[in-house]
């Protein structure tokens, strides 16, 4: 008990302190309350920092962190200045403010910005203004390739402005994108797109871009998108360009500084096209008469008929394309190329037929039956149609335009390259025809010497040698040679027109000579040949026209279908 009493008394005595000790205890309690306020303030600051971190992570609220930092600094200043005078209710207000600001961050609302804050850029292109002219894919959209298919660029490194095409070793597979264009912004639709190729460089002078230093893509409409290499968020779209790959695997783009323009005015084009339309009925008349009239429907006449028909078809389509401004790329250009090439190959067949008569049929006194004449004509037809068809197929394979060189000028290398399957074949076939005509001339000299040196039985020689056929073949050879001279002159003028860089009026005269070839054919084979009697007899229905005796005798002697 003593111990317990002592303990009790000690506790009572300890409770009843002196006034000095009581004041000292009160001061200690007040200091503890101040420490509690400091702890509560630190807790609030901790909560504010967490709220600021969460708000900064939300999109569109980048300035929220600065707002929280400023409010936290204000709270810290208030706590430091009046720390001992604050009560527990002040902490409740801070907590209320914290909970309110947290709700703003979670709902995604944007707090009021300070005047010094900068506006944010849009996260994508949706808030930007669209360009008025957007790339739209069409059936006529083409990717412009500099070199023909199967060929690549061969860049001269010492002079980047010069380039040429060479046999290809790499596959041409450029990047084609479908995009929507905005103001300094491009939205890739990520749609797989393929385009047909248009061959050739349309530029007189051009700028060159290399994929090692520049960034460019082909858009869905075939235009070229060039990104600013200096990172200025700008771009350009070029419609007049060509793109290709060199042997090192790098893509090069050529954009036009000045574009190739047609050097022949539209009025001149119309004028020459009208001349082609004038030639067309002349050619059709020659073709119709040599197919209809029995006396003209021999092997020479059938070849002449198809030659005239091919030229008439080519001239008609060619003139209509230029008069009405029809696009000459693709199928129409290939049809014109085939018809014009067939015309020159049929002329070669006519020259070869004269050669065959002079050197084989006439000296050997061979008269072909109707069946063999048909086989002979079929061989000519296969040659005159198959070789042009093969050339056109090569043109299609290379992707070159089939339009012949009429109305064109080879101002650039790509335009000259586009005629590789027209100008060289025609030049070659005309040269071979010229050689055949020279050989035929020596054949006629050989027959004349043979006829003069023959001193045997004249009756037997006259029976074996067909003098009438010899005269017909001789007239055919004169007409063919005369037409060959006009064709060679016209072709030389066409080459001068194509490779000339000037815009002189004499170029129009060259095209006029080409446009009137149908008139020359009519004059040579129906007027100079004097087919008037045969035509008039057919016109007046078999003999109603009065025929003189000499003409009747000439008609009765024409009995050989070959």
What would you say about this model in short?
This is Probable G-protein coupled receptor Mth-like 14 isoform X1. By secondary structure, the protein is mainly alpha-helical.
**Inertia-based shape:** elongated
Q: Which ranges are low-confidence, i.e. pLDDT below 50, for 5 or more consecutive residues?
A: 1-17, 53-119, 157-161, 549-553
> The biggest beta sheet, please?
3 strands, antiparallel
Instruction: Report the radius of gyration as a whole number of Å.
Output: 48 Å
Going by CATH, the homologous superfamily of the largest domain would be Rhodopsin 7-helix transmembrane proteins
Derived from helix and strand composition plus strand pairing, the structural class reads mainly alpha
Write down the domain tally: 3
Strand ordering within the main sheet: 7-12-11
Helical fraction: 55-70%
The helix/strand order is HHHHEEEEEEEEEEEEHHHHHHHHHHHH
Q: What percentage of amino acids are in beta strands?
A: 5-15%
CATH topology of the largest domain: Rhopdopsin 7-helix transmembrane proteins
Mean pLDDT: 74
* CA-CA gap between termini: 162 Å
Structure description:
It is a single chain. This protein is mainly α and 562 residues long. Helix 2 (19-57) runs parallel beside helix 4 (88-107). It starts with a helix and ends in a 6-residue tail after the last helix. The protein is built from 16 helices and 12 strands. The model is unreliable at 1-17, 53-119, 157-161 and 549-553 (pLDDT under 50). Helices cover 57% and strands 11% of the residues. The strands form 5 sheets. The protein has a 3-stranded antiparallel β-sheet with strand order 7-12-11, with no helix packed on it. Strands 8-9-10 form a 3-stranded antiparallel β-sheet, with no helix packed on it. It has helices spanning 2-15, 19-57, 64-81, 88-107, 266-292, 299-323, 331-361, 370-398, 413-418, 423-453, 458-464, 467-499, 506-515, 517-528, 532-539, 549-556, and strands at residues 142-145, 151-155, 163-167, 179-182, 185-188, 196-199, 203-210, 215-218, 224-227, 235-238, 241-245, 251-259. The chain has 3 domains: 2-107; 130-259, no CATH class; 266-556, Rhodopsin 7-helix transmembrane proteins (Rhopdopsin 7-helix transmembrane proteins), CATH 1.20.1070.10.
